[in-house]
């Protein structure tokens, strides 16, 4: 028939002349009742596929039967023919309305997961540089900053168990996602649309087809995200994208397993339209974040890039032809923009590490590990989990070329910045500078050694050079902080007379240095032992040699060599109040 679908142009009473016109008038009247009050109309079927208006369905069938009989072939029946064409259009439109009403997909088994995901805690931070408040809060509760990568470790504590289970493909085999009664209605609708010759109208309606299974998860992005941080939104996006990709595969399999019928010829186009519509929603969300360039969001952006990369193949499998090509091009375009944002973020992270004003001035803990060092290594460890992705993004488009180059530059910039900051804060610190740098370089080495991913990035030669630097700083610290104390024992060089006075000066200097250095912080027990040993090897042999040259002082000496060793073993326990700030 090819009749245009729309509300029939009824309203003018026409006296029926033939039996066919009488039948048409009755069918028109039934359709007219629906046309005049669509808001109050319950439809032919309810959402659960139960009949609610068999009379309306009978009117649709009567119109289609009349059209098949072609009762108005003569020119003088043109008016009746136009009325019939209009009625056919109304019948097809009724079928489209029913299609948009019927519930084909069953999301009842997913409600728990949807609810849990919408309420999922977002308290844990994966910022590469957590704020001082977050750092203190984590320490105060005995917790740690979440170092999950946000895309490869989906079953982390921040993802509810019910949601994590849906990321397992096998779980979907046990979920009944389809309503067989709803599919039966689709067959009924398709049969009548084909008879009306209005299949294109149904095809167009597929773009708006409801799908509770997918839409229940998409609703989290549409509604909940307005109340969430950027980090929470991206995290949910990555999870929802994975779930929807797996759900679409299961939906296709279950729809094709249903009893055959008239809708079989529409299944492919129906699923394609549903897939395209939901994929476009996901891509629009992803595209909305491509303008973010804050390095604080780097880990989340990598998670989004990886989630889209991982999900794209399965999503594209649900498409074909022009749809598949268009979605593929759009996906690649978004990935390209995400990659560009990641490169900007990487440069921003390095610039932050190399900057002069990274944190408010805080007590240095008398040589302890600076917050900048801790956060830099947390950043490195987080990035190492995304090595494959970052190598792909950086290759040929960044001067560093790979994550290894980025990490090497980042740590080198950290070391330069720490030296510069300490020199400005305490130009005459002497041994304090070497102790501070030994602490921080040792901390970096320890974190690298504890993380195979980072260690493989930097290599053995890099680690050997840093160990050599630590040894140099240890030796320089001992010479700078304890060399002047030991020099007091050299009576020849000092030209002083009485050995008892020399010993008294040494004792006083030793006690001052010990009291000061005992409170300095060296968190690493291995480095602490190395430093104590270096100081002991410098002080104790010189003290013993002095006493041997002055045998008369042996009994009156305040300390024995063993006393010095024991006293030096208490160095670097922390709780300093020296007030140096960097």
UniProtKB/TrEMBL annotation:
State the residue spans of region: Disordered. 134-156
Q: What are the record keywords, sorted?
A: Exocytosis, Protein transport, Transport
Locations of Low complexity compositional bias? 145-156
Q: Does the keyword Transport apply?
A: yes
Which regions span the lipid bilayer? Answer: none
In the record, which residues are listed under signal peptide?
Answer: none
Q: Name one Pfam family in it.
A: Exo70_C
User: What family does the database annotate?
Assistant: Belongs to the EXO70 family.
Q: What does this protein do?
A: Component of the exocyst complex.
Supply the name of the protein.
Answer: Exocyst subunit Exo70 family protein
From what organism does this protein derive?
A: Zea mays
């Amino acid at each position: 028939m090819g009749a245009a679908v729309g509300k029939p142009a009824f309203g003018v009473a026409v006296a029926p002349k033939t039996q066919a016109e009488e039948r048409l008038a009755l069918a028109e009247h039934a359709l007219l009742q629906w046309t005049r009050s669509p808001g109050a109309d319950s439809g032919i079927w309810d959402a659960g596929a139960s009949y609610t208006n068999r009379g309306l369905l009978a009117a649709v069938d009567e119109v289609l039967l009349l059209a098949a009989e072609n009762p108005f072939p003569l020119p003088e029946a043109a008016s009746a023919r136009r009325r019939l064409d209009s009625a056919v259009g109304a019948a097809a439109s009724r079928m489209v309305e029913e299609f948009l009403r019927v519930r084909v997909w069953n999301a009842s088994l997913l409600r728990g997961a949807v609810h849990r995901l919408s309420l999922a805690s977002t308290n844990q931070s994966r910022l590469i540089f957590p704020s001082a408040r977050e750092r203190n809060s984590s320490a105060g509760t005995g917790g740690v900053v979440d170092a999950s990568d946000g895309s490869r470790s989906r079953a982390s504590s921040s993802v509810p168990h019910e949601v994590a289970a849906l990321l397992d493909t096998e779980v979907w085999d046990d979920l009944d996602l389809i309503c067989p009664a709803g599919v039966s209605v689709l067959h009924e609708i398709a049969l009548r649309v084909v008879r009306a010759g209005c299949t294109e109208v149904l095809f167009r309606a597929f773009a708006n087809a409801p799908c509770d299974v997918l839409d229940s998860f998409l609703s989290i992005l549409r509604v909940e995200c307005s109340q969430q941080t950027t980090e929470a939104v991206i995290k949910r996006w990555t999870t929802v994208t994975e779930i929807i990709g797996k759900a679409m595969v299961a939906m296709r399999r279950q729809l094709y397993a249903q009893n055959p019928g008239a809708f079989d010829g529409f299944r492919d186009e129906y699923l394609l339209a549903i897939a395209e519509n939901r994929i476009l929603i996901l891509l629009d969300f992803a595209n909305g974040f491509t303008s973010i360039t804050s390095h604080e969001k780097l880990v989340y952006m990598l998670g989004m890039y990886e989630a889209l990369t991982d999900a794209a193949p399965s999503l594209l499998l649900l498409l074909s032809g022009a749809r598949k090509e268009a979605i593929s091009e759009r996906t690649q375009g978004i990935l390209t923009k995400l990659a560009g944002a990641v490169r900007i973020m990487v440069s921003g992270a390095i610039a932050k590490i190399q900057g002069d004003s990274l944190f408010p001035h805080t007590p240095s803990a008398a040589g302890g590990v600076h917050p900048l060092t801790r956060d830099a290594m947390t950043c490195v460890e987080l990035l190492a989990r995304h090595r494959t992705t970052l190598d792909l993004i950086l290759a040929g488009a960044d001067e560093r070329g790979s994550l290894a180059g980025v990490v090497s530059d980042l740590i080198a910039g950290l070391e330069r910045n720490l030296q510069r900051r300490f020199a400005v804060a305490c130009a005459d610190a002497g041994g304090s500078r070497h102790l501070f740098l030994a602490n921080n370089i040792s901390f970096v080495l320890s974190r690298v050694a504890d993380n195979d991913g980072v260690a493989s990035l930097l290599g053995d030669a890099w680690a050997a050079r840093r160990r050599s630097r630590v040894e140099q700083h240890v030796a320089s610290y001992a010479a700078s902080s304890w060399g002047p104390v030991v020099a007091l024992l050299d009576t020849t060089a000092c030209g002083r007379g009485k050995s008892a006075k020399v010993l008294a000066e040494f004792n006083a200097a030793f006690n001052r240095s010990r009291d000061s250095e005992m409170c300095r912080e060296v968190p690493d027990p291995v480095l602490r032992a190395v430093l104590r040993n270096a100081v002991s090897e410098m002080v104790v042999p010189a003290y013993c040699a002095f006493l041997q040259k002055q045998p008369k002082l042996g009994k009156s000496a305040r300390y024995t060599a063993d006393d010095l060793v024991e006293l030096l073993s208490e160095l670097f326990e922390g709780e300093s109040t020296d007030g140096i700030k960097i």
